[in-house]
Amino acid sequence: MYLNEQLDHWASNTPDSQAIVFEGKAISFAQLAGKVACARGFLSEHCGIRAGDRVAYLGLNHPDMLVILFACESLGAIFNPLNSRLAREEYAFLLANAEPKLCFAEPSFADILHDIGNGDVEILSTGNLYDKPAGRDRSATSVPSSQPLLLVYTSGTTGRPKGVLLSRFAVQVNIENCQDLFQFRQGQRIQMTLPLFHVGGLCILLLPALMHGSTIHLHARFDPEDTLAEIEAAAITTSLLVPAQMAAMMEHPAWQTTDLSKMEYVVVGSSLIPIQQIKSFHDRGIPASQIYGATETGPAAIGLKIDEAMAHEGSAGQAMKHCRIDVRDKDRQSCPVGERGDVWVWGDNIFSGYWRDQKETDKVLVDGWYNTGDVGYVDEEGYYWIVDRSKDVIISGGENIYPAEIEAASLNHPAIAAIAVVGKADSRWGETPVAAVELVDNSDLDLEQYHSFLADRLARFKHPKELLIMASLPRNGMGKVEKSEIKKRIQQQG
Questions:
Q1: What is the pLDDT of residues 182-193, one digit of tens each?
Q2: How far apart (Å, rounded) are the C-alpha atoms in residues 469 and 423?
Q3: Which of helix, strand or coil describes residue 224?
Q4: Burial class (CB within 10 angstroms; exposed 0-12, middle 13-18, buried 19+) of 382
Q5: What is the CATH number for 107?
Q6: Residues 189 and 247 reside in one and the same domain
Q7: Quick check: 49 and 84 in contact, CB under 8 A?
Q8: At what angle do helices 29-41 and 63-75 cross, to 10 degrees?
Q9: Per residue in 135-166, pLDDT tens?
Q10: Distance CA 467, CA 45 (A)
C-alpha cells in the first residue's frame, strides 16, 4: 500500500485516533484524510494539476505540508518542499529550475516570492486548499509506482543545488526500511522538530510512524526549551535529532531535570555524530539509534537497531532491510573488512536521478549503485562505521554546506580575487565554514562587510563564520588550491 491507501486504512479503522498534534491542536486520521480529499479536489479541479506537475511549498513545518504531499501522490504530481532558510537569489534559482505550476507559501515567505516576480508560478496560501468543497475522489492506484513524488534540493559540489527525484516506490521502500528498523506501533508519540523540507525530517520517522498509526507531535521549528517541555508533558516516546539539536538540549538548564522516562529511544542522524552526545542519552537510559544515508538514498540506508545501540556506540549500524551496502576502493573494488573506502548504496529507495541533470546523475549512480562519497568501513560483525565525508562538504547543525556554492557567490565581490572555503570543527554545530581569501590589490574586507554582501545571495547558515585573509592561497604544482594546508593554518591559529 502507498501513502493514500495507508492513510485511508487508518481513517477507516481508527478514525478518531490522533494522527498529528500541532500547536496544541490534534488532527485525527479521519480529519487528515478529509483534508487530503479536499486538497486533492482543489489541486485537480481548480488548479489543473496533473501528473508530473510540480507543487512547491515554502514555509515552516505545518500539517498542510503533509496534506499537499498526500494530495500530490494521488494525482501523480511532484511535491517540491523548499528550504525555508534560503536567500532571495537562491529561491529565484529553485523556482526557475523546478518550474512549479504553483507554490503554497506562508505570508512572510510569499512576499519574497512575489518580489522575485516569476509570473509563471502561482503563489497561494495553504488556506486556499480548503476553499472549495472536496471534488470527486481520485485514487492513487492509477499512478505508476515509478512516478516521481518528491523533488528535494540538496546543495551541489558544482555551486548550484541539485534536485533529487524520489519516486512513489522509493518513498514507500524507505518507509518499510524504517518500519522494520524501529518497529513502530499504535500509541507511540513521535516528536518531530526537524524541518520537513529535508527528507530526514519527512521520511525517517514521520511518514513511517504515521503510516503505522502512531501520533506525530509536529513543531513549526526547533526550540530546546519547548522540545524538553513537550517530552515530559506529552510523554513522548521517541524523537529524531541532529547533533546541533542534541547539543542545544544538553546545554539547556532543564536537561537534567526533565522527565525522560517515557522515551523508549532517540534516533540520531548525521554523517558524524559526537560520541559524547550519544553517551549523554545512554547515561539517561535512552538508547540512541544512529541512522545513516543521504537525500539520494531516501534517506535511510544504514541503521542501528535499538537493542544494539548501547553495545555499538558510534556505529551507523547495518544495512537496512531493502538495502545493500558496499565499501569500495578508488577502482570500485570491494574493500576487505576493516579497510576504509567509499560507501556505496543499492536499493529501491535510491533516487531516480537529479532533476534535469543527467551528467551529475551519471557521476554518482552506476549500475543502480549510489556513491555517497562518504568514507567508512565494515567490521567483522557487519556493522558500518562512517569515519569521514566527501572531500569538501561541511555538515553544520545537520545542514549540508558545499564550499563550491559559497565560493561561486563570493567571487562576485569586487574585493575578492580568490577564495577557498573549508570546515572548522565546532563543539556546538559540528563544523562551521571558514573563508580563506586573496584580496584584489589595495582592497580590504571584514567579516561584517562580507556577510552583508552574502545576505541576499546565500542562506545565513551558509555564511562563513570566520574570514582568513591570506597574501596568497596555498596551491600545488597544478595551481589547485590545497585546502588541507588552509585547514592546518586554521588549526594552528585555534
A1: 999 888 999 999
A2: 16
A3: helix
A4: exposed
A5: 3.40.50.12780
A6: yes
A7: no
A8: 60
A9: 555 444 589 999 999 999 987 555 688 999 99
A10: 53
pLDDT tens for 264-295 read 999 998 766 778 889 999 999 999 999 999 99
Burial 329-360 (b: 16+ CB within 10 A, else e): eeeeeebeeeeebbbbbbbbbbbbbbbebeeb
Are residues 328 and 401 both part of a single domain? no
Per-residue pLDDT tens digits for 169-210? 999 999 999 999 999 988 899 999 999 999 999 999 999 999
- Domain of residue 465, residue span: 394-493
CA distance 164 to 151: 5
Are residue 406 and residue 373 in the same domain, yes or no? no
Residues 300, 411: one domain? no
Residue ranges of alpha helices (H) inside 348-446 are: 358-364, 403-410
Q: Are 314 and 330 in contact (CB under 8 A)?
A: no
Residues 198 and 140 in one domain: yes
* Grid coordinates given for 233: 508533558
Q: What are 240's strand-pairing partners? A: 267
In the prediction, which pLDDT does 135 show?
Answer: 54
Task: Record the cell numbers describing residue 40, joined without a space.
Answer: 486533492
For residue 120, count other CB atoms closer than 10 A to its CB. Answer: 10
3-state SS of 281-322 is HHHCCCCEEEEEECHHHCCEEEECCHHHCHHHCCCCEEECCC
Q: Is the pLDDT of residue 358 over 90?
A: yes
What pLDDT, on a 0 to 100 scale, did the predictor assign at position 42? 94
Model confidence pLDDT, tens digit, residues 478-493: 567 888 899 988 888 8
473, 372: one domain: no
**Pair (410, 372) in one structural domain:** no
Please give the pLDDT value at position 273. Answer: 79
**DSSP letter at 440?**
P
CB-CB contact of 389 with 431 (8 Å): no
Helix (H) or strand (E) holding 261: none
Whole-number pLDDT of residue 133? 67
Cα 294 to Cα 374: distance, rounded to the nearest angstrom = 10
What angle do the packed helices 447-454 and 403-410 form, to 10 degrees? 100
**One domain, residues 456 and 357:** no
Q: Is residue 430 part of a domain?
A: yes
* Residue 416 CB neighbour total at 10 angstroms: 19
